[in-house]
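Slack export, channel: ligand-projects

TW: morning all. Re-posting the request from yesterday since it got buried. We need the structure predicted with the small molecule present, not the apo form. The ligand is magnesium ion; the SMILES is in the block with the sequence. No rush, but it would help planning for next week.
GE: picking it up
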Amino acid sequence: MDMQKGTPQDHEIVLSVEDLTVGFGSKVILDQLSLDVRRGEILGFVGASGTGKSVLMRTVLRLLPRRSGTIRILGQDYDQLSEAERTALDMRLGVLFQHGALFSSLTVKENIQLPMREYLDLPQKLMDELAHLKIALTGLAPDAADKYPSELSGGMIKRAALARALALDPDLVFLDEPTSGLDPIGAAEFDELIAQLRDTLGLTVYMVTHDLDSLFSVCDRIAVLGKKRVLVEGTVEDMLAFDDPWVQSYFRGKRARSIVRTEDARP
Amino acid sequence: MNSTALPAASLTTQPLDGGMGERIVLSGAWRNTSLPPVLGAVDELGQRAGGQRLELDFTDVDQIDTSGAWVLKQMMVSAADRGCEVRTRGMTPAMKELIGALPDRLEAVRASAGAKRTLFQRLFEPIGRTVYDFWEDSISAMNILGAAVRGAQLKFGRHSGLSPAAVVNQMDNMGVRAVPIIMLMSFLIGAIIAQQGAFQLRYFGAEIFVVDLVGILQLREVGVLLTAIMIAGRSGSAITAEIGSMKMREEVDALLVMGLNPVGVLIFPRLAALAVVLPLLTIVANFAALFGAAVVAFTYSGITFEVFLTRLHQAVAFSTIIAGMVKAPFMALVIGVVAAVEGLKVGGSAESLGKQVTASVVKSIFVVILMDGLFAMFYASIGF
Ligand SMILES: Nc1ncnc2c1ncn2[C@@H]1O[C@H](COP(=O)(O)OP(=O)(O)OP(=O)(O)O)[C@@H](O)[C@H]1O
Ligand SMILES: [Mg+2]
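GE: finished. pasting the full token output, ligand included:
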């Protein structure tokens, strides 16, 4: 999220995955997968259920072991870092898990403040203000701050989890299905919010999603996971032109067609 | 790029041309990690009344994030509130957008402080609450006992409910797997009682009575009591944790809407298994303890196994054994029901799960001991 003076270098790679192989037991989930994410972009990641989108994200975050391959985050290879450098790197990543993963015994505000407390040296008053600020930015009502996760609706959990992911103003955020379980208006707001955060904070966003609206409206690039690797990456046009039955039915299916048509109709 | 190498945020103030106000020149990285050194200066600026104009110069700011932007925005908003004219210089479009995107002020929501309570309320409310809690616990315990007997299905009037596989599985978990630890513990307890008994009785030259002492104490009281306490810690906690985490993840609700009775499905197999297993474990414990006592009696007092057994046969009546064993199923039910009641009280958080598991173990051990005392009084008054 560096806002260095001058134009950001074009196509600086913030996440690069090379020849990644991941499996459980005898089952290989990802085979020789390669992927690049560029600074400042919103990458939409799609694929059929169970193809390994969450597994890829968890592997990149080092929550799952890999069999082979290298992963470089923000230009650094985690395996070659010292303990202090790893912590510094972790601080620059934000993660929204598929099921929120909020700490159930802490209120929303305390959830957001937890990473701040651990890493930052700010006075309590400022941390309170920042937590309330993140809550406001993610579109939660102010009174959600003192609620516990079990008292939140599904959509509120997503927003609270996003607020926590953004607590430290990370450079790179991973979102696993951020808009699933939101109403269409809420989902559209969420998409807008992510685009706005990208513009203002200079975030790079890696977003796993099944939401065609998000793909068409906010994603700069789309990558498709299939056959244990990235089948194709590129813009919506590239997807529409790509010759693969799954990709075709995904982007040209009944639900997609109406969106594409309305997009085309726009001036 | 490393966050440790960020230039710290700093600011300097200069009087504006014409003496109408101040210019604040900002520099460095206004990011959450590099912000702390400048916060004091920002506070100080905020307290100063200031002139008519405030100019913020962003030209030397390297980086900024929400925390830096927020601090600066607060500065601008409070200056504007004081009637100051605020201007900025040298902002990049991204900075402008970021600062613009932040709200002017936050609707801070404070939990309304509860009405002040009188001394009377503060003194007696906890007592009343405890009594009510106790009453509710008793009701739900009765509920669980009743529902457990009714079985799994709520609908179609089917009463079968009992699934033998589940019960046997629980018996394996709670019983068979507990045998080694129960045996070891009882062996040691038997040995310790025998050793101390032998030392004391030696003064009277009545060492042989150590067999009576160990036999009656173990078979009537200690055997079943310690086994029950052990099982309360081992299986009671497990039951509470299992049911509690199912409650937490709405699995209990899922059973309910399927028309199944959670008590019948989840709790009954555990209760049934406990009621079968605790008496059996008590028997195992008794054998182990008597064996431990026999070993100690032989080593310290030279009482051979043969003499030990003969004396045991004379000292212990069949009713002694029955008096001990009768308590076991009751204690099993108490442990199971207390664990289930606590498990169903678990709320949405991991913390409440921990609290309820603790409560379950403490309460069931307490009730087990209380029950043992009641049985002792009962036996005494009927002369059993
Ligand atoms: N810990 C695990 N052990 C064994 N297999 C696993 C494990 N985690 C995931 N898998 C398997 O890996 C595959 C990919 O799972 P993953 O959760 O990544 O799917 P996904 O692409 O995220 O799907 P969805 O869109 O439904 O979230 C699945 O077949 C799943 O069964
Ligand atoms: Mg997934």
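GE: first-pass observations. The two ends of chain B are 83 Å apart (CA to CA). The interface with chain A takes residues 1-4, 31-33, 35-36, 39, 62-67, 70-71, 74, 92, 94-95, 97-98, 101-103, 106-109, 111, 248, 347-352 of chain B (CB under 8 Å).
TW: perfect, thank you
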